[in-house]
């Protein structure tokens, strides 16, 4: 049984990791921290390097949680990437951070978070960063 945590290096991503590690410790489940860069992007400010991945794993060990960091490439369908990982890993929960967006921004840009919420086959825990 596995908890999947969506991570980008933002306050919302940090909140998701914190919540995912808490859930992993409470449930006695392993955690996969998912940092999924877009396939073909020459620069992706959300992609983490090895040092940042090692820091996330250190935090997991400190929380007493078995964890790994994965960076699966995705096209334009991050929710599908999460669903594939749920099936592959026996995922029981997805944890994602939500940022504030205007209604116009949601309408024009869509929302991968909203699609994960609506299309996921497992429960989704959403968290917000502290202000």
Automatic annotation (TrEMBL):
Domain of life: Bacteria
Family statement: Belongs to the universal stress protein A family.
Cross-referenced InterPro entries: Rossmann-like_a/b/a_fold (IPR014729), Universal_stress_UspA (IPR006015), UspA (IPR006016)
Annotated UspA domain residues: 2-128
Protein name per UniProt: Universal stress protein
Organism for this UniProt entry: Nonomuraea insulae
Pfam family, one: Usp
């Amino acid at each position: 049984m596995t908890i999947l945590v969506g991570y980008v290096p933002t306050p919302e991503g940090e909140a998701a990791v914190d919540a995912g590690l808490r859930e992993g410790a409470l449930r006695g489940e392993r955690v996969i921290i998912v940092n999924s860069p877009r396939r073909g992007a020459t620069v992706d400010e959300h992609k983490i390097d090895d040092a940042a991945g090692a820091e996330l794993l250190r935090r997991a060990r400190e929380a007493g949680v078995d964890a790994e960091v994965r960076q699966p490439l995705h096209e334009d369908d991050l929710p599908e990437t999460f669903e594939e990982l749920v099936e592959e890993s026996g995922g029981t929960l997805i944890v994602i951070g939500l940022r504030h967006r205007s209604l116009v921004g949601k309408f024009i840009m869509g929302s991968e978070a909203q699609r994960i919420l609506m299309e996921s086959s497992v429960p989704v825990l959403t968290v917000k960063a502290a202000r």
